[in-house]
Amino acid sequence: MRQRGLSIAGLLKASDKIEAQGRLGRRVPIAIIDIGSNSVRQVVYEGLSRSPSILFNEKVLCGLGRGVAKNGLLDEEASERALTAIRRFVRLGQQLQVGETHVLATAATREAGNGEEFVAKVETITGQKIRLLSGRMEAELAALGVKSGFYKPEGIAGDLGGGSMELIEVNGDVTNGVTTPLGSLRLQEMSRNDLKAAGSIARKTLKNANVSWPGNLRTFYAVGGTWRSLARLHMLETGHPVDVVHGYSVPAEKFASFCRKVVSKPPDSFKHAEEISKNRRPLLPFGAIVMAETLEHIGAEHVSMSAVGLREGYLYSLLDDDIRKQDALLEATTELSILRARSPHHSRELAKWTDDAFRVIGVTETESQQRWRRASCNLADIAWRSASDFRAEQTLGIINNAGFNSISHE
Long-range contacts of range 184-187, CB-CB < 8 Å, 24 or more positions apart? Predict the structure, then answer.
């Protein structure tokens, strides 16, 4: 029988409700509203999975923690900005048909004398019970975030927020952790914007922050917006070829030297300063002080930047054990294959065929090389819609900027 063409308009008319083809079906969006000391952010994920994709991500720099160190109270204007943002986030969640919303609050809300009053207002707006995280819980969730975003991480995770900085050991398990008042916003206030005084406060505070390396590797996993901005500036200044912060790894001594440079000269004087958020720039020197002093205090050898932290750690804590054990890289590349390839089944067949071929030929792979090969099979056909002469270039561009977890930049 002769086929008849069907236009996009015809497709839309043929279905009362056409589903978004760039999303995986049967996943219900899940949202986290994260009330931090510096920013209030909502992230909506496509669904609860081992490698969650972000549907919506927006932050408002409210500065809730500004004033807590000085007078023990949340700033009134900052509270109103936060509540306005949260009202908007709730409406956006409704539009995105979010199934669950989880509201987390950290140091500023926890420690402020008027924190309970603020919590009550947020719970009225969201209709959800707030999880008011202790310093220990913040550290544990940051470490779980690192576990979710790195392949078999081993070292110490540090999470720098506006009001506190947590350090916690990460290996097969999440173990000992400490919380300190070295949040970038709080340190700025405690030092009265004096960088020399801030350095003295950081050194004195860290003397009582006792964490140990859980294994042989001395990798420091850095979590937090100010540290990500610091890493982004370093990437731009050094011409790093991969434009993704997550997984960016630098020798600790080299990064500490850069941090001291950020402290010694105004952030705006750097060549690529304009590419860093204007609201983040004033806190960069204080984040740099905490980073440099922490690296020296713990004796780190490498710094690895993490774009995942407390929020992703909380999602990871909700997963069943069998889902947690999945490989985040293979899960993410399989999803991309389902969404982009002509036949996702072929990707699996290609992985199985190369498994057999390498065994027969006698090719020996490391565990990491095997993962990379199977991930490559998943990505082999994701650019088939491009003109044939440009498919390799298009595929490389997607892979290079996809921001996959659990794989290094190299």
Answer: 184/38, 184/160, 184/226, 184/283, 184/286, 184/287, 184/290, 185/37, 185/38, 185/63, 185/65, 185/66, 185/283, 185/286, 186/37, 186/65, 186/68, 186/69, 186/107, 186/162, 187/286, 187/289, 187/290
pTM of the predicted protein model: 0.89
Query: Do residues 110 and 74 lie in contact, with contact meaning Cβ atoms separated by under 8 Å?
Result: no
Summarised one tens digit per residue, pLDDT across range 152-164 is 999 999 999 888 9
State how far the Cα of 376 lies from the Cα of 340, in Å rounded to an integer: 14
Query: What would the two tokens of residue 190 be?
Result: 């405690």
Longest alpha-carbon distance in the chain = 82
